[in-house]
Amino acid sequence: MPIVEIGGARVRADLRTPLGLGLYRYGFCLPEARLLAQLLLPGDVFVDGGANIGLFSFIAAVAVGPTGRVLACEPAPDTMALLKANARENRFSELELHEVALSDHPGRAQFTVFERGSGLSSFAPANPGGSEVDVEVTTLDILTASVEGTVAVVKLDIEGAEAKALRGARALVARDAPVFLIELEPEHLARQGYSIGDVRAALEPYGYEAYAITPHARLARLTYDWRPPDARAPNVVLAPPSRWDRLSGAAVPRSTQGSS
Q: Which CATH architecture best describes the domain 29-256?
């Protein structure tokens, strides 16, 4: 497989998959990825929920350096195999791989998987087909309980299970108040019985506010509700005022902030 340079890391592009072909042709330059590199500092702890083949995890590993920690969670076995191959290519000492799904309880559950690297695997998939596998399930509280250092940023792109994962993160939120880079896709959430309102209810009591991510990797506060202003770009940043120092460099003037 050809190697693609991503934010200082090396990633194998599997040309048999749409993701790998896209990486080979266009690279990886999403605003969310550029923003992540701004939010993390050397020595930070980063959690990647829905790590897929490791793109965000590797950007984070470069940013946090050998004194930091990256916990990459990917439950789909075939996709985890690609993630492991990419991890071997980079040899990041700060990277931990966890073949788990994040939810509101620990245990095991049936999980529908699609082709490796697709990003479509889910407890409640949007597309027909796929195959069911039995996977380990854990919570963010359990995952991070013994981690040394403060969890600075958590990325959640887990096909509608984001609200469940936040329900399993109460201790983490109270302790570390991490920034969340999170996908808020109403249809995905609804398939698992949740809504953006449930996400808001989980974090707003802790002072969290929502920010849209602009095409230039800047942040614009969402002053009405937490729904992403552009349905084609469902990722937002959720953060409390105590983390404003992390966000201030990416903030846009208040006069241009979204009000979705």
A: 3-Layer(aba) Sandwich (3.40)
